[in-house]
Queue: 4 jobs
Job 1
Amino acid sequence: MLQDQLLYGKMHTHADVALLLCQYPVLYGNIRRDQGYSDTAITFLDKAIALANERGYTELGAKAYYLKKGYAEFDKWGIQPDCLEDCANLYRAQTSFQAALSLAKGSQNKNGFHGPLWSAVLAEAGLVHAYTAQSGTEKKQALQTIDDASSCIGRSDFQRDWQFMNVNAEWYHIDKAEAYVAVQWGKEALREIHHVDRSDVQKRRRYVYTDIVEADAYLAQGQIEMCVACAGNALSLLDDIQSFVFITRIANIHTALIHDYRYENSPDVARLGAELLKVQHFYLFQ
């Protein structure tokens, strides 16, 4: 229907319809990404990128690149059990975040400061850099990029974009915590997470992610009981939030634990496995 309106509708509506046609694959692609259908998500986001490039929608193009390989390719990498050995999707994500940064900068030059988009792309670019960093200098550069995102959030002219992610100080602290996990600084990661309030019931999905990052941080510290508690809390919040990405990340934590001879017979780890099974195959327990 939108395509027909673009082809046969009145001329003054063409711009609005074209924008909607570009926004739709961005929205749908992000939904499919969260459901775990990363390849389908990338297909729709590629369509959005092509249309955005054709119509000169730099801001929407930046959002599509951000969600495309920024999130979808990063998710494809992160849910792999052997993600540290196979980094192809991680490097693809890094390339797309750079494209998103370039488009976001062009959009700002044209339309003015867009705080949520600019800070979100900076934060995720810094996070991916943290995972690819080899030297101490590269690790510090990655963390500094995320701090640059925090500076944007703190600006007086920063305003929420209701058609984008809810980017705020919590967002920064969660990303910074995961970046610390990426560089194996678990103690610093836990310090960042303590800045996340977790009291807003409207942000349950964000707090599931926080619990997963916290579980990873405790795992890096060797504090297995706390790791299992955080992973279990994330599972309990997933009762009415079906997210393949989150479930798989928790499953990978459980796999790492049972493959470590120190914890393979742990009752806490066994309990986490049982809770995970109930979420993965809920239909068996109805």
Note: Residues 88-111 form the longest helix (24 residues).
Job 2
Amino acid sequence: MNGKELTRVEGSSVSFDIRSFIAIPCAGYEKQFPSARPFSIIDKEKLTAIDKYLRSLQPHTQNNEVDIRAKAILFYNNQTSDTLCIGKFNSYYKGEAVQVDKELISLLGINP
């Protein structure tokens, strides 16, 4: 595992059906959705499954505009963290557009 182990995930989400006049970027998520539903994951099995899924993510090149409805901070045992921003159609992981499907959304416990 490259010596880097996922130790916890903290984030929040809103309904993926919420409409907005402009696309909500990852950096503007908290300001736009201050009362989003929080979630936290510390279960080892879930963390292992999430980490495995994240390692298999593929770049998404069709459309780089992301309209965020969930955001998660992934914390690792080496005191580093990564950000995952999830939209209805596109997502960002480590600042790159990626394809995310219902499996990861389910692993994170997000109710889209």
Note: The CA atoms of residues 44 and 68 lie 27 Å apart.
Job 3
Amino acid sequence: MNRPADAVPGDVPAAVLRLRDEYRRRADRALLLFRLSGTALILLGAAMPLFAIAEYPYKAAAVSVAGVAMSLSASLHAFFRWDRQWQLLRGAQLDLEDAHLEWSLATADPGTAGPGRDARLAEADRSLFERYRAIRGAETEKFFTLVEFPGRPAEKVGPPE
């Protein structure tokens, strides 16, 4: 069965909710990693002077391990930018929730049966589908602007100077 090019899939509201839930899961994971890496940096940074001045067996190894852990935590955070991912994903999640709520309001009482009702429902579905695509596309584009490759200068984003 061929669908016209401008036809909207029938499961758009369900797809919106699935994507919203996926963004929520990813945002929660980014928040957790952001908090863990920050906490590790704070705790290890505060403890490093104590590790360095105290006398105990395997002192050099302990100080080295703490330094490597700090470096690893800071490097992973700088590479993955969990704080920005969290912000970006949470924003996309909220945008999808807004779009779904607007669709719900538009379809809650579409009026009496007939061609006008069907047209209003179709327009609400089409509007939801377009917002879904726009939000997903914007999130993808913004996500890849966050990626910085080690050893390669960051690309400038924004108007030229």
Note: The chain is about 75% helix and 0% strand.
Job 4
Amino acid sequence: MKKHLIFIICLIACPNCGPGGRSEPLRFERIQKADTLVFQAQVDSSLASGSWEYKFRIKQADRVSLVIELQSDKEGLSAKLVRNDFLLPDIYHCPKATIKEKLCKLEIPNPGAGEYSLVLDLSQKESSEPLFYRIFAAVHGPGFASVAWEEEIVRR
């Protein structure tokens, strides 16, 4: 019983320390627009099975929105955006109706600072062919933000 309690405490204290899928940073670049802050990231890739995680950090955000669009060539890809918090993470799921349409769009006005993970999961796939997808992410608005991934930091 004591071992189970320690394991549960470790999972709560460090949600990213457990076994998981593969991951990589979601790399944003700053785009110059008149009177508007824009950071954009785009990924074109494929997934044959399991899950894949894209990580980034919003260090500061004020009067901006976070938009994530995911398109796939087939049904079966589920996605969620997780803002890792110390005890209770904020989880934003793609609506079920849009998953069947092979499109997911999440928009978060005034996102909080923190570590974010976009988790793609293909665990319910029946075919052996890979599923191709495109991710478009943006932090935009009239305010300011600081977005980081790995050791790179971009500031306005």
Note: The chain has one domain: 20-155.
